[in-house]
Amino acid sequence: MSNCEKPLTLRATLLVAALLLLFAPGVALAAPAGTVVGLSGASIVESGGARAAAKLGQPVQVGDTVEVPADGKLKLRMVDGSVVSVAAGTRLTIAAYGVDGAGQRQDARLSLAQGLLRAVVAPVERPASFEVDTAVGAAAVRSTDWFVEGSATAMQVGVLTGSVEMISAATRRRETIPARWGARLEAGRDPVPPRVWSPAEFAAVIARTDVK
Amino acid sequence: MGLGKSCAAAVAALVLGVGSPADQAFAYSATGDRLFPATLVLPQIAPGDEFYVNAMTLPSAGGTAGAASRASNFTATYTKTITDRLGIVLDETWTRIDRVGAGSSNGWQNTDTAVKYLAIVDQPHEFLFTVGLDREFGGTGALRAGASASSATTPAVFFGKGLGDLDIGYWRPLAVTGSVGYQIADTRPRPDLVTPGFVVEYSIPYLQSKVQSLDLPDYVRGLTPMTEVSFTTPAGRSFGMRTTALIAPGLSYAGAGWELAIEGLVPASRATGRGGGVIAQFHLSLDFVAPETVGRPLFSAP
């Protein structure tokens, strides 16, 4: 054994470990995704299996789950500038949130197990997805101000500006929803064709996601 | 023009929807998850931001020389919402009337406008109710094409009811819409008319999205088979006008922001016509294709 064999082995081990850490799912999920910028009630952030009360200014990571109680609301400013307002009774997981060196979103995927959120999605210069998955389907946009509500049996989307594409997980059928319109999707079925939402319907979801 | 010939032209015009609430057709309307596709013969039941064109032709009773043997209409309609529940309608119709042994005559019908207010929207019960007022401006069209020299005003009510709130399985995609108007002529000899009508429709999109998703071809998924039934009957002195009844079975196909529909026209009375006709319509939902500009109500929140 030469003198340099041992350091090389150590160096190689560290390199492999670093690579493993870099590409291991658990660590990759720990990328910064956003910050809590609005809060009311006792919301919870579950990160790496640990549950803690959410605090203003607290960073959230990819892989974290946010739970907002029935009397609470929470607002996140994401790393690309998008703003996600989460209504009471919502459980939301940040499944992916990648940005490039310039802070431009590459892909974002939120998993909405239950509840309602409003997303004001920051525009990007090139194609980049912003998707919310629910138990029954998904809704995807590039840049818009919109709402999505999900449960185990249905989801609905309302669009204030821009447009959203809603896709049924069961049938893969999709509907494009323009501004001022909304649509529903029930488990195992095609999306309901969109229709114009009334001001009262928008006012209701705005109030539910309005975080001071 | 003698009264008989004038009446023949007027009947043809009425059957084809000219100068009656039937040409107020708005584009589709909705309550909750129920969408009512645009009808072709009867008016739509709620205000909207739409532009559409339709063409129709129907053989008339014919008979003596000079009597109408066929009437054809080409109509363009623009509807605009003022608020989310209040809208106006503007339409113009060009008519050609073929006559027995006398060639044909053609020209514009009277300018027709309407205002509608969506009074009740009950989403859980898929029900809506609208009140409207139509005004036809007499003398703005061509008498030779059947346009009346007299103006007329038609107050009307409209409704739509889907059966999706009932526990009736595969019948839930059924819906019924309808309207009743009372056309009041400004001057005689134009008669006053009662103009009722209804539509029975079965929505395949509703079946796929609310009842059960079946493995159907794409073109079937957007179809709504429907049958329209429309009547006009004189109220009070008829001035030679007789009751007309028209049955129009057909199909409507809905795309993203547009609809294409075609129906057969089956006269159910001799005064309505003789032999089958056809009507086709294409309409564009401006509130879908341009939701933040021309498709938006003039006054709306948010």
Description:
The complex is a heterodimer of chains A (212) and B (302). Chain A is of the alpha+beta class and 212 residues long. Chain A is 16% helix and 48% strand. Chain A contains 3 helices and 17 strands. The longest helix of chain A has 19 residues, at 5-23. The radius of gyration of chain A is 20 Å and the shape is globular. Mean pLDDT of chain A is 87; it is low at 1-5 and 21-29. By secondary structure, chain B is mainly beta. Chain B has 4 helices and 15 strands. In chain B, the strands form 2 sheets. Chain B has a 12-stranded antiparallel beta barrel with strand order 3-4-5-7-8-9-10-11-12-13-14-15. A two-stranded antiparallel ribbon of chain B has the order 1-2. Chain B is globular, with a radius of gyration of 19 Å. The relative contact order of chain B is 0.19. The A-B interface holds A 160-161, 168, 170-171, 173, 175-176, 178-181, 184-186, 188-196, 198-199, 202-203, 206 and B 30, 33, 35, 84, 121, 205-206, 208-213, 221, 254, 256-257, 287-289, 291-292, 296, 300-302.
Short description:
Chain A has 212 residues and is an alpha+beta fold.
- Biggest β-sheet description of chain A: 17 strands, mixed
Mean of pLDDT of chain A:
87
CATH architecture of chain B: Beta Barrel
Order of helices and strands of chain A: HHEEEEEEEEEEEEEEEEEH
